[in-house]
Amino acid sequence: MKSLLVRFFLFSLVIAACSIAVTAWLASQATTGAIRQEQGDALETDAQIFDELVRYAATHKDWTSAKSDVDGIAQKHGRRIALTDGNGTTLVDTGGENAPQLPITPKALVDPLNVNGKIDPRAVGPFKLNDEEYRTLRAYADQLLQCNGRITLVEAPNGRPRLPDLGPGELSVWEDCPVGYRLYTITVTEKAAYGQLQALFTKCLDQRAPGGRNYDRPLTPTTFDWEVTTVNGAPPEVVACMDSSRREQLRPYVAAPAQLFLTSPTGDEPMTIDLSTTGATRITLVALGILSLAGFASWLTATQLVRPIRALTAATKRTAEGDRTARVDGGSGEIGELARSFNAMSEKLAETERQRQAMVSDVAHELRTPLGNITGWLEATQDGLAEPDPHLIDMLLEESLLLQRLVDDLHDLAQADAGTLRLHPEPIALDDVVDQVVNAQQNREILLRAETTPVHITADPVRLRQALGNLVANAVRYTPPGGEVVVKLFRWQDEAILEVTDTGTGIAPDDVPHVFDRFWRADKSRSRRTGGSGLGLAITRHLVEAHGGVVSVTSTLGEGSTFRISLPA
User: Fold this and answer.
1) Nearest residue to 538 via CA among 321, 359, 313
2) What is the DSSP letter of 253?
3) One Pfam family from the UniProt entry (predicted)?
4) What b-and-e string marks burial along 220-231, b requiring 16 or more CB atoms within 10 Å of the CB?
């Protein structure tokens, strides 16, 4: 027990130490995660501000009217926004007259023609549809949606309705809806814009890539969009010409590049989030305190745990030495449950021991009477005091048969206890089994009759006759002359029911729970008049349970009893 106590205490200390370490790690991770989340939110906010400013620049020719829009963006995100040109001249500033000086380094450059090296798709310039063209294409789009309700349309930045991600060779979707082709007709505005782009592209090729003249062809929208930006398979200088031509074409329609400064509303830079180093001494002291408290609590818990275990150990030793009265008070909780289980086991052992002693006594008693009779009469015959006439031989044979029945009953019980009681199930008519038992148990002094309905089940007919025969024989034995025994058979739900009802002496309420115990008999005097070994009902219970059934009894003292067998049908 000391070993268990020490191991439990050390184990608790290990758990406490691991808990502290894990808690510290989780706290660190949670703090770091929160900081990263806050930093991520700040970066996301900056990105949203930048995107909104790029959108404004892509759709306006200059920044002269941007003050109200930029003020709205600054108020929405809680930032001060300032824009300056390349010379440092302020274009827009939401900080007010008394705002502090701006940082030296700008946050980003707002240029819709150079967003990460690409042209912002919202910079449409001359490709922007006029109102009449927009209404015409919108009408075609509505007709297309009415023709094919399964498709979806999106609106390009220049106002053109289109399918999302429609590629070359995918126009077959319009075979049932011809209006789809009209939706992708090049408008006058787009045709003029493509012509302008063609001229700029040709001029660039003449200046920068004379060898690329084979790409000087009329430009058409390869993606059915206003964005014609690539020349597939061309040399780098040709691709560069297309890129520079598009920027040159769009430059008059977008705002000039502006330097972006983002600060807090008071003018300072947004606060940089940093995780300061926590004092190692303080952490160590707190950890030692927690460890001490955990150790003390673990020691108390271990002591409380070991005390009832020691009591259980002592009681177990006494039980092993033959003391069947050992009991333990384990309190509550798991140990208390273990103590109650031990007490129940001890009581069961005591009861089993009492039953064993009673069984030995009963077996000795049951064997002593027929053996004494046989031995006495054989000795009398040997001494010449009795003649071996037929009457004596019949009497000795009857006593031998009684011994044989007792031995057979004990053998059946032994097989049932060992789980080796064999059954040979087969389809049978249960009403035939009832008739056979009733005919075999007929008695002139008692009315024995059967009330049956046809019931077919799968069971061992020999064992069922034995079980039912024990019940009928028991009923006949305890029914006085002139009484009645009725055997009923019927089906109820999914069960076959056998009932044996008698008008005998009945069973006292205190004795009902014991009727299926071995060697139990209502006749405590063990009179030979009633006969029986006291094993029949116990054998019946085992035989019925082996068939998956249940046997029960209801009885009224002085009025009779009803034994009921329920079998799965």
Assistant:
1) 359
2) G
3) HAMP
4) eeeebbbbbbeb
Q: What are residue 275's DSSP bridge partners?
A: none
Taking the CA atoms of the chain, what radius of gyration do you get in angstroms? Answer: 52
pTM above 0.90, yes or no: no
The pLDDT profile of the chain, 569 residues, written as one tens digit per residue, is: 445 566 667 767 777 777 777 667 656 665 665 566 666 667 888 889 999 999 999 999 999 999 999 999 988 888 889 999 988 888 998 887 777 888 888 989 999 999 988 899 899 999 999 999 999 989 888 888 888 777 788 888 888 888 776 554 455 556 677 777 777 788 899 889 888 888 888 888 888 756 545 555 555 544 444 454 455 566 777 788 888 888 999 999 999 999 999 887 765 555 554 444 455 566 667 667 777 777 777 777 777 777 777 777 888 888 777 776 777 776 666 667 777 787 888 887 777 777 667 667 666 766 776 787 788 888 888 888 878 888 888 778 877 876 776 777 677 777 766 676 788 899 999 999 999 999 988 888 899 999 999 999 999 998 898 899 889 988 998 899 999 999 999 999 899 999 999 999 888 888 888 888 776 665 554 444 445 566 778 888 988 998 999 999 999 988 899 999 999 98
State the Cα–Cα distance between residues 327 and 339, nearest whole angstrom. 8
Q: How many CB atoms lie within 10 A of CB 252?
A: 9
Structure tokens at 145: 């949606």
Max alpha carbon distance in the chain (Å)? 153
Q: What does the alpha-carbon distance between residue 326 and residue 157 come to, in Å, rounded to a whole number?
A: 91
Separation of alpha carbons 285 and 319, rounded Å: 51
Q: Which two tokens stand for residue 520?
A: 């139990």
**How far is the C-alpha of 205 from the C-alpha of 493, rounded, in Å?**
96
Q: How many residues does the chain have?
A: 569
- The per-residue b/e assignment along 418-439, b for 16 or more CB within 10 angstroms, e otherwise, is eeebeeeeeebebbebbeebbe
How far is residue 162's CA from residue 182's CA, in Å, rounded to a whole number?
A: 11
Of 569, 335, 325, 327, nearest to 454 by C-alpha is 569
Q: 203 to each of 129, 200, 221, 357, how far by Cα in Å?
A: 26, 5, 20, 121
Bridge partner residues of 563 (DSSP): 500, 553
Spell out the residues 6+ positions from residue 6 whose beta carbon is closer than 8 angstroms to its own. Answer: none
Nearest 5°: the CA angle 198, 203, 208 is: 125
Please check whether residue 559 is in contact with residue 506, taking contact to mean a CB–CB distance below 8 angstroms.
yes
Query: 547-556: long-range contacts (C-beta < 8 A, 24 or more apart)?
Result: 547/423, 547/425, 547/459, 547/460, 547/463, 547/464, 551/467, 551/516, 553/507, 553/512, 553/515, 553/516, 554/512, 555/506, 555/507, 555/512, 556/506
**DSSP annotation of 322:** T
Tokens encoding 516: 């299926």
